[in-house]
Specification:
By secondary structure, the protein is an alpha/beta fold. It contains three helices and seven strands; from the N terminus they run E-H-E-H-E-E-H-E-E-E.
Length: 140
């Protein structure tokens, strides 16, 4: 599935549209360079799952993980950019996240072999000043 976003609002709308298919145990890996909109995508998805458009959803760049309670169970938002060793994911509640929640992972390559085989991958690439190409590896 491919989507062309022409604005941050387009990205938010697209992310929110994917929530209907998400269930506990699902893992979404977000790939893209710095500033391409991975956090924007995650924020919109979390707000949609929470049914709260004003929910404070900070980037977990420094905390490495943020957890949110939603009507579909917990949502774990990981940002692994600062991880130095893949095994460090276990210090962040990795097993619990993968087992019981919907898990969103920015910079998933930092988790190495610890990514679940069932994870779905979303690639975001900047194609213009405000335009992004979003590719979902398989339909949600």
């Amino acid at each position: 599935m491919e989507f062309i976003s022409k604005s941050e609002k387009d990205t938010e709308t697209f992310a929110a549209s994917l929530t209907a298919a998400l269930q506990p145990g699902d893992t979404l890996c977000l790939h893209g360079d710095l500033g391409t909109g991975k956090s924007v995508f995650c924020r919109a998805l979390i707000r949609a799952l929470s049914h709260d458009n004003d929910l404070d959803v900070p980037s977990p760049t420094f905390t490495l993980v943020q957890t949110y309670d939603t009507r579909r169970g917990p949502v774990y938002h990981f940002d692994l950019y600062r991880l130095e060793d893949p095994e460090e994911v276990y210090e962040l509640g990795w097993d619990d996240a993968l087992a019981e929640g919907i898990t969103l992972i920015e910079w998933p390559e930092k988790a190495g072999v610890f990514l679940p085989a069932s994870a779905r991958h979303i690639h975001i690439a900047q194609t213009g000043p405000h335009e992004r190409k979003i590719i979902v590896d398989e339909p949600l």
